[in-house]
Amino acid sequence: MSHLANRLREGTQKSHTAAENTAFMKCFLKGIVETVPFRKLLANLYLVYSTLEEEFRRHQQHHIVGKLYFQELNRQQNLEQDLAFYYGENWRSEIVPLKAGQAYVDRLKEISNTDPALLIAHSYTRYMGDLSGGQALKHIVRSALDLPDEHGTTFYEFDQLPTLEAKRDFKDKYRQALDSLEVDEETVERIVEEANYAFTLNRNVVDELEADVRAVIDPHVFELLTKQDRVGSTERRGHPVTV
Ligand code: HEM
């Protein structure tokens, strides 16, 4: 057994805390969500997930990557619905990658060609996050943007995992799949390192959106909202955490 699930959790705790403590996320968690930066975030996630999911399909027969391919996690189509909602029918011609979003996509393509096992790290970082903290973010977006029913947060919805319990069970199954991979210590270390890099790539995207958030908030309020750091959700004692 590789214990990869625990190695990933423990090996990325500091990165997780840093991701929660970006100015963008601190504002988000306090209910400050603005349409312009939020839709840009979704647009960049669309580019990232389209690439990640295409590369996972390409490597479905790979002895490691194939074991972590779960079609029920796929986000591409859900994001398409949200983008049509926020940008309108012509969303495809409206969305532009941020510099950080392009760098993220480029990294996925690069490892897919040179070292596909590392794609596992990116799947873990995004999907486990979406099934965990992402679920709390959904409620924040809905109330901040006062969204009409059924629109604007499809990204956070998993049709085949509709309840909290189904998500929890799936996360257990995902962790078991990680643990069952036949990977040596050197590969485990490289996957954990890549997961930390995946967190950095995510942080860079939201850091690039910070200016859009600042543009709509009073500087003093921005300072108040962002000055204090949170204790990271995966660093808190007394696991398991509930979202
Ligand atoms: C897990 C919250 C952002 C990736 C968790 C868990 C919580 C949480 C409570 C624990 C769930 C559990 O034990 O089942 C949050 C909050 C965020 C946030 C409030 C607000 C900003 C992020 C970001 C990423 C991320 C930006 C990556 C892009 C993950 C991953 C896990 C996780 C990979 C799984 C850890 C594991 O059990 O191995 N998050 N998160 N999170 N989160 Fe986040």
Automatic annotation (TrEMBL):
A UniProt-annotated Pfam family: Heme_oxygenase
EC number: 1.14.14.18
Keyword terms of this UniProt record: Heme, Iron, Metal-binding, Oxidoreductase
Taxonomic superkingdom: Bacteria
InterPro entries named in the record: Haem_Oase (IPR002051), Haem_Oase-like (IPR016053), Haem_Oase-like_multi-hlx (IPR016084), Haem_oxygenase_CS (IPR018207)
Recorded coiled-coil stretches: none
Family: Belongs to the heme oxygenase family.
Name this polypeptide is given: heme oxygenase (biliverdin-producing)
Organism: Pseudanabaena yagii GIHE-NHR1
